[in-house]
C-alpha cells in the first residue's frame, strides 16, 4: 500500500473529498499527463486513467487534469480507471497558452515551491527569471532561483550584481551536479510532503538536478551540444517523482516562451518592488510613465531603481493587463451567452 501522505494528502483534502458525490470511490494524485490518459498514484498502486465524456468535452483545456491534481476515479480491470471528479485546485502554476490572447495552460497544482532554474551560460537571463517569479508569486507559491552549472566558471560577483532585485524576493542557490555539496544545499529546501516544481528553459539541467537530488537516474538527460555549447531539451512531459524520505518533485519540459497568465496586473508591481516606490506618488492612479510627482520615475532617475527592472515592469504589466482584460471580456461574453440560453429555455417552457 502506498502512503499518500508522502505525496501531500492531508486533512483539508479529506474534507474536500467528503464534499464530492463520488466520495466513496478511491482517490489519487496525477503523476504524469499523457495525450489521452493520466497516470494516477493511489493507495493501491499506479492506475492509468481516462476521463469521462462529460469531463473531456465539458471543461476548458486549463480545467482538465494537470500534474499534481488530486482526483477521484472508478477503477476497472487491472490498474485501469476512469476519472470522475477533480478536487478543487490550490497553488496552481499557469502560463498563457501559446498562440492565444487569454487562454491559459495549467502546469502543475498543489505546488509549495518552484525552483526557477537557469544555467550560467548563454541561457542566463535575469528578465526571464523575473517573468517566472511574477507568475509563481501570483499563484501563492514560494519561488527559489537556482543558478545551475556554476562549474562553468561564471563571474559570481557580476551575477550577484545583476540579480539584486531578485535576491530580495527569493533565495538564490548556485548548483552543479559536479559539486555534490551544492546538491545537498538544494535538498535542504525540500521537506517531506512538499511539492516542488522545476521550471526553466530547455537545456538548463532540470532533469539532471532531479536525478542528482534523488541519487539515481530517473529522468532521461542529454549531453551538452557540441555546436552551441548549451544543454539540449530532453523532457517532453510533466512528471512527478517522489524523493526517498523527502518531498515530491515535478519536472517540466523547457519552454521558449512563458507568457503571463496574471489576473491582477498590480501584482507585477508588487513582485518587482515598484509598489514600494509607488507609495510616494502624487496621484493614487499614477501609471509611472510620465505623470508629475511620480516617485517611481524619480527613483529611476536617481539610480535607486534599476532602469532595466523598471522597463521589465512596464513590459510585464502591459502583458498582464492585456491578459486580464481579455479574460474579463471572455467571462463577460460567457455569462451573456449563459443568460441568453436560460432565456430561450424559459420561453420554450411557457409555450
From TrEMBL:
<feature type="binding site">
    <location>
        <position position="286"/>
    </location>
    <ligand>
        <name>Zn(2+)</name>
    </ligand>
</feature>
<keyword id="KW-0690">Ribosome biogenesis</keyword>
<feature type="domain" description="EngC GTPase">
    <location>
        <begin position="109"/>
        <end position="256"/>
    </location>
</feature>
<dbReference type="InterPro" id="IPR030378">
    <property type="entry name" value="G_CP_dom"/>
</dbReference>
<dbReference type="InterPro" id="IPR010914">
    <property type="entry name" value="RsgA_GTPase_dom"/>
</dbReference>
<dbReference type="InterPro" id="IPR012340">
    <property type="entry name" value="NA-bd_OB-fold"/>
</dbReference>
<dbReference type="InterPro" id="IPR027417">
    <property type="entry name" value="P-loop_NTPase"/>
</dbReference>
<keyword id="KW-0378">Hydrolase</keyword>
<keyword id="KW-0479">Metal-binding</keyword>
<comment type="subunit">
    <text>Monomer. Associates with 30S ribosomal subunit, binds 16S rRNA.</text>
</comment>
<feature type="binding site">
    <location>
        <position position="288"/>
    </location>
    <ligand>
        <name>Zn(2+)</name>
    </ligand>
</feature>
<feature type="binding site">
    <location>
        <position position="294"/>
    </location>
    <ligand>
        <name>Zn(2+)</name>
    </ligand>
</feature>
<comment type="function">
    <text>One of several proteins that assist in the late maturation steps of the functional core of the 30S ribosomal subunit. Helps release RbfA from mature subunits. May play a role in the assembly of ribosomal proteins into the subunit. Circularly permuted GTPase that catalyzes slow GTP hydrolysis, GTPase activity is stimulated by the 30S ribosomal subunit.</text>
</comment>
<dbReference type="GO" id="GO:0003924">
    <property type="term" value="F:GTPase activity"/>
</dbReference>
<feature type="binding site">
    <location>
        <position position="281"/>
    </location>
    <ligand>
        <name>Zn(2+)</name>
    </ligand>
</feature>
<protein>
    <recommendedName>
        <fullName>Small ribosomal subunit biogenesis GTPase RsgA</fullName>
        <ecNumber>3.6.1.-</ecNumber>
    </recommendedName>
</protein>
<feature type="domain" description="CP-type G">
    <location>
        <begin position="90"/>
        <end position="258"/>
    </location>
</feature>
<keyword id="KW-0862">Zinc</keyword>
<feature type="binding site">
    <location>
        <begin position="148"/>
        <end position="151"/>
    </location>
    <ligand>
        <name>GTP</name>
    </ligand>
</feature>
<dbReference type="GO" id="GO:0042274">
    <property type="term" value="P:ribosomal small subunit biogenesis"/>
</dbReference>
<keyword id="KW-0963">Cytoplasm</keyword>
<comment type="similarity">
    <text>Belongs to the TRAFAC class YlqF/YawG GTPase family. RsgA subfamily.</text>
</comment>
<keyword id="KW-0694">RNA-binding</keyword>
<dbReference type="GO" id="GO:0005737">
    <property type="term" value="C:cytoplasm"/>
</dbReference>
<dbReference type="GO" id="GO:0005525">
    <property type="term" value="F:GTP binding"/>
</dbReference>
<dbReference type="GO" id="GO:0046872">
    <property type="term" value="F:metal ion binding"/>
</dbReference>
<keyword id="KW-0699">rRNA-binding</keyword>
<dbReference type="GO" id="GO:0019843">
    <property type="term" value="F:rRNA binding"/>
</dbReference>
<dbReference type="InterPro" id="IPR004881">
    <property type="entry name" value="Ribosome_biogen_GTPase_RsgA"/>
</dbReference>
<keyword id="KW-0547">Nucleotide-binding</keyword>
<dbReference type="Pfam" id="PF03193">
    <property type="entry name" value="RsgA_GTPase"/>
</dbReference>
<feature type="binding site">
    <location>
        <begin position="200"/>
        <end position="208"/>
    </location>
    <ligand>
        <name>GTP</name>
    </ligand>
</feature>
<keyword id="KW-0342">GTP-binding</keyword>
Amino acid at each position: 500500500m502506498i502512503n499518500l501522505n508522502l505525496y501531500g494528502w492531508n486533512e483539508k483534502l479529506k474534507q474536500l473529498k467528503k464534499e464530492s458525490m463520488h466520495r466513496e470511490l478511491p482517490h489519487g494524485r496525477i503523476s504524469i499527463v499523457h495525450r489521452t490518459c493520466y497516470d494516477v498514484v493511489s493507495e493501491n498502486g499506479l492506475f492509468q486513467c481516462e476521463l469521462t465524456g462529460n469531463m473531456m468535452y465539458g471543461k476548458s483545456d486549463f480545467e482538465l487534469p494537470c500534474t499534481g491534481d488530486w482526483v477521484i476515479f472508478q477503477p476497472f480491470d487491472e490498474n485501469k480507471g476512469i476519472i470522475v471528479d477533480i478536487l478543487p485546485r490550490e497553488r496552481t502554476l499557469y502560463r498563457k497558452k501559446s498562440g492565444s490572447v487569454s487562454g491559459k495552460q495549467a502546469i502543475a497544482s498543489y505546488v509549495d515551491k518552484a525552483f526557477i532554474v537557469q544555467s550560467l551560460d548563454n541561457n542566463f537571463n535575469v528578465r526571464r527569471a523575473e517573468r517566472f517569479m511574477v507568475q509563481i508569486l501570483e499563484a501563492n507559491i514560494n519561488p527559489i532561483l537556482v543558478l545551475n552549472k556554476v562549474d562553468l566558471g561564471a563571474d559570481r560577483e557580476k551575477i550577484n550584481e545583476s540579480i539584486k532585485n531578485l535576491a530580495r524576493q527569493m533565495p538564490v542557490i548556485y548548483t552543479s551536479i559536479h559539486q555534490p555539496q551544492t546538491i545537498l544545499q538544494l535538498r535542504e529546501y525540500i521537506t517531506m510532503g512538499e511539492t516542488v516544481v522545476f521550471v526553466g528553459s530547455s537545456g538548463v539541467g532540470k532533469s539532471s538536478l532531479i536525478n542528482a537530488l534523488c541519487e539515481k537516474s530517473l529522468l532521461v538527460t542529454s549531453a551538452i551540444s557540441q555546436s552551441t555549447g548549451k544543454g539540449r531539451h530532453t523532457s517532453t512531459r510533466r512528471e512527478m517523482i517522489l524523493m526517498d524520505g523527502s518531498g515530491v518533485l515535478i519536472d517540466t519540459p523547457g519552454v521558449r516562451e512563458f507568457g503571463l497568465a496574471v489576473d491582477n496586473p498590480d501584482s507585477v508591481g508588487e513582485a518587482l518592488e515598484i509598489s514600494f516606490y509607488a507609495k510616494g506618488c502624487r496621484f493614487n492612479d499614477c501609471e509611472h510613465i510620465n505623470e508629475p510627482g511620480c516617485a517611481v520615475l524619480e527613483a529611476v532617475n536617481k539610480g535607486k531603481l534599476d532602469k532595466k527592472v523598471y522597463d521589465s515592469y512596464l513590459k510585464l504589466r502591459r502583458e498582464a493587463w492585456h491578459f486580464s482584460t481579455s479574460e474579463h471580456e471572455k467571462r463577460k461574453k460567457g455569462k451573456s451567452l449563459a443568460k441568453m440560453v436560460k432565456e430561450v429555455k424559459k420561453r420554450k417552457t411557457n409555450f
